[in-house]
Amino acid sequence: MFNQFGSTAETLSKxxxxxxxxxxxxxxxxDPEDVNIVPLLDSKFESEKxxxxxxxxxxxxxxxxxxxxxxQVVKNVASxxxxxxxxxxxxxxxxxxxRPNEALLSIxxxxxxxxxxxxxxxxxxxxxMAGIRLHVIAPLALAAVxxxxxxxxxxxxxxxxxxxxxLHDLRLEEHAPAIEELVGILLNDHSPGVVGAAAAAxxxxxxxxxxxxxxxxxxxxxxLPDVEEWxxxxxxxxxxxxxxxxxxxVRESLMLSIHGLDNNGFYEKDGPVRDITxxxxxxxxxxxxxxxxxxxxxRSYIEGxxxxxxxxxxxxxxxxxxxxxxxxxxxxxxxxxxxxxxxxPLLWSNNSAVVLAAAGxxxxxxxxxxxxxxxxxxxxxxxxxxxxxxxxxCNILVFxxxxxxxxxPHFENFFICSSDAYQxxxxxxxxxxxxxxxxxxxxxxxxxxxxxxDPDRRFAADTVAxxxxxxxxxxxxxxxxxxxxxxxxxQESFAGDLKSVDGEAGVLVQAVMSIQTIIxxxxxxxxKVIIQLFRSLDSIKVAPARATIIWMVGVYxxxxxxxxxxxxxxxxxxxxxxxxxxxxxxLQILNTTAKVLASAxxxxxxxxxxxxxxxxxxxxxxxSYDVRDRTRFLKKVLSCKLACHDPAEDxxxxxxxxxxxxxxxxxxxxxxxSSPLAMHNRFYLPGSLSQIVLHAAPxxxxxPKPCSYVFEEHDQLSDSDRQREATADLNGSQESSETVDEDxxxxxxxxxxxxxxFSSDGDERTISNDAADPLIQISEIDVSTxxxxxxxxxxxxxxxxxxxxxxxxxSSALDRNQSSYAKISIGDIGSxxxxxxxxxxxxxxxxGLKVDYxxxxxxxxxxxxxxxxxxxxxxxxxxxILEVNLEDEEAMKESDSAEQTLVGKANASxxxxxxxxxxxxxxxxxxxxxxxxxxxxRFHHHLLPTRLTLxxxxxxxxxxxxxxxGYLVKPFSMSIEEFLATESRLPGMFEYSRRCTFTDHVKDxxxxxxxxxxxxxxxxxxxxxxxxxxxxxxxxxxxxxNTLEDATGLRLRFSSKILSSEIPLLITITVEGKCTEVLKxxxxxxxxxxxxxLNLLNRIANFMVEPVDQQN
Length: 1112
Prior knowledge:
GO cellular component, one term: clathrin-coated vesicle membrane
Oligomer: single chain
Protein name: AP-3 complex subunit beta
Low-confidence stretches: 260-275, 277-289, 314-320, 492-496, 651-656, 675-680, 713-819, 891-910
Number of strands: 22
Strand content: 5-15%
Helix content: 40-55%
Domain AP-3 complex subunit beta C-terminal: 792-944
CATH architecture of the domain at 969-1104: 2-Layer Sandwich
Radius of gyration: 42 Å
Organism: Arabis nemorensis
């Protein structure tokens, strides 16, 4: 085609593909290793940055690792372009866990973006913060979510709801109540999109906190039809669980009507079989069935794993019926009415999962006469949705097993289509066999005749099995079914040598088994059919079919008058064909011959005994282990029969022969028929994945126990009353706290100590104190835990520009008496403070030169960016070391490295400050001699080491001087009033805490038996803190109400400023536990520099856990 233009089909196809790619980003996938990404990321044009970021995301989609671009990408987080910002956020979400330190440095930008006027930017920032799964930023992310749940933009609030499960997955036990409170706020939202996301958060965070649902139940029911489809599924399940837990099951529902519970709450005396009529116009729609199955279904919806295992282990124990106290009547329960009304329209939803969820509510809670409304929506879904056909059928099967009459008039909807998958065909066959009635069986059997001719012989075999089930259920059609099944057995195609159970062989096996099922209903009237099967043994070559017929020989060997006379001939034939049979057939031959011998008459006994002995001898020499083992067992069991010459003789002596009793029990009696309802069957809630896979899938939860959630009296108050009381309590608490602050602020004068008061020699440090002050002073100021929490909460609400929250402030908590605190004065501990030393150079690598360094508490006089470090040089070798000096590795040079890019803006004015102030050179260091030098170092980042060069003996050795976060701050003197005022201005995002343990005081208490325990604990904590950081001790407070053994409530406050930015940093350590046991410390930091504060928090928590001997 178009050959005159030189075109071919191939070239036209390529041209068409090129045209389709125009205007798209498909070209980004063509060059996966583009080396121009870095220059584009550093470009000053936003379009080029956007192109580079798209290329990186394309590489990620193709499986390439592009984490090496992390520094260049992160610096673009401050871009003003929303498109660039969005792409940067996507990249950060992918690699934040691999590069946590660099990801933390962008937290400040996320916080700034949370206040951006564009709601999309705010939502992206929140999604990224919540997606960075790091415990260290979890408090910041929680504070951000707390702000965004009140955002005016719907999309931002929806992102906040989606972020809550991510925070919950981090296992933040101390923040669990706050997270649940935020879920309750979102459930009360007026936007359907937010409510759907809130329902998902509720399901994964607190699925049993029904108090949150009770407050908003009617509103949730009203907004349910407007929620997005996947949110409707979760919300329907949540509302159903709430109604069951709050009110119980409905007496008029199918679940309790089957139990025989009448409308007055009393149990009827009828048996377990009930007649339920859904359509009086057709008599066939009334179906009498066994109520045990429905009872099992209703129990399975509610019972947990332990109850199910108990029921499976002891099936003979009947479970107790539902108590009338655990039920409710729909006539008097408005919540149930509202739930059923709001879910009824959803039965015709476009989403099949929503239809199943709504049908599940109607199935469990609707009155008996209203259950039929689920039928037509399910059938419509079965016809219209091919993708979900199998899932819908699995749920319909459960409904049909419980109440077949529901779907009896609609049997034609379950006829097989040629395009159906095999699993769908199998379920439809089972449905047809369940709902077949005397009026519809003729049409169903005609369909079955066509199905048997289907080329898929496995499906044809299932059809034959379905015919047997129909004949078993309907006693009026066995004769018709038997004729057709016998015709199948007599077909010429089955006379061939069929070795497997596939294809035609499977049809034959199912035909024989269906015949056996029909015969079992009335064996005596089907004696001729049994004889006809016995005679067809020679023509049937399929092993399972032969084994089934041989089994029937043993079962019906004493039936009627003709079969006993045929036993000798049949057993001779079985013994003759034993060698050529399959293993499963041989096992049945052994069992059948034993049964025949056990029931043999006198005239045939000797002949049958010789045949059995011959068969047992053949079995002992068989190649199959199973056959040989079965032969030995039967030979031992039949020893009494084989030893006697007359069956009458055996009956005389059988009373004292154990073997004879075993034979009589095993082969002489029929086993009791098993119940069609297996007690180990397990049913799951409609629409759940567990109902499809037939086991409890991960995350599956049964319905709660009926009426298991009982509200307390104060929960019954109206919302307006609760809000009015909470507001009054809050106003009263605010007035009392202000009064306390005004009265006690001038009285609180704590003894304060600073790390900077120590002398600079590093060996002996003195701390100023007044020896005349008492050890413990009682202060009239009341700084209680409740007040501090209230103050922090009020400040957070003001920061969010919202009204103060009252959800966590109950009247009981605010009316609690505030405990007075006593201040503790610590004595002179300066000589006991020993800063930790670090190794700079190991003597093995330095040819005998050992270099250690210790951070000093002195503040540099050169620049606020410099830290004073004392370096100890020691010669361990036997030769002198000459010209020892430490210098900067290189002058400050332009670099695009991550540490240069991510330095804070506060350091921008100090770019000309040198990294290292030159130290005085050591001309000679004799063997076993040491020397100290003071150096002043500037760290470009608080986590990254500074590279230096050590010179000695004409050599240059590169070394790394690693920063200690505790000495990148300086002491900042302040009073307790100033401390509390500064702390109140740094709540929410700027406040983070961490828990740890402390054990140093235990060792100290053993050494100093006569010392005050509280003072020992205070000194141990203070020593540990001041030995690892450069802080100012503001106060040490202890609750006066504490006992002599209880240190709970002991609080130490430290203050400082960050060297590089002069930003205040406050540290509060709260003690919990007994004085003689391991203490639990809560370390809290308030600081505007969130990244620095979080890293310092981790540093403090780590060294507080370390024993003293590991630090020294």
